[in-house]
Amino acid sequence: MAERRKFKKRYCKYCEQKVEFIDYKELNSLKFSLSERFKIMPRRLTGNCKRHQELVTVAIKRARQTALIPYVIDRKKVVENPFEIIR
Ligand SMILES: [Zn+2]
């Protein structure tokens, strides 16, 4: 169990900072809930409460639409996928 725990404590970072509204332009606050490939982190990893996770999800989706956050990271930068060329 100790190995699998990437995140030390389960607490909502937004509750701790008493965030009431998450702005999609504030990428610093969204970073908590984004993985390094800009995916939305699941609640079980971040420990966000349900209310804030929903706010974060909406904010991240808005940020993607406004091109503040990429939808996907270029796969070639991470791992070359040979099946991609065939298609
Ligand atoms: Zn919260």
TL;DR?
By secondary structure, this protein is mainly alpha-helical.
Key phrases:
87 residues, mainly alpha, 30s Ribosomal Protein S18, 6 helices, 43% helix, 0% strand, globular, binds zinc ion
Sketch the major β-sheet.
none
CATH-defined topology: 30s Ribosomal Protein S18
What is the average per-residue confidence, as pLDDT, rounded to a whole number? 80
Helical fraction: 40-55%
Shape: globular
How many domains? The number is 1
How many helices?
A: 6
Alpha-carbon distance between the two ends: 40 Å
CATH superfamily: Ribosomal protein S18
**Hey, roughly how much beta strand do the residues contain?**
under 5%
Tell me the name of the CATH class.
Answer: Few Secondary Structures
The CATH architecture: Irregular
What is the tally of beta strands? 0
Instruction: List the ions, cofactors and other small molecules found in this model.
Output: zinc ion
What series of H and E elements makes up the topology? HHHHHH
Query: Given the helix and strand composition, which structural class is it?
Result: mainly alpha
Radius of gyration: 15 Å
Instruction: Detail the poorly predicted runs.
Output: none
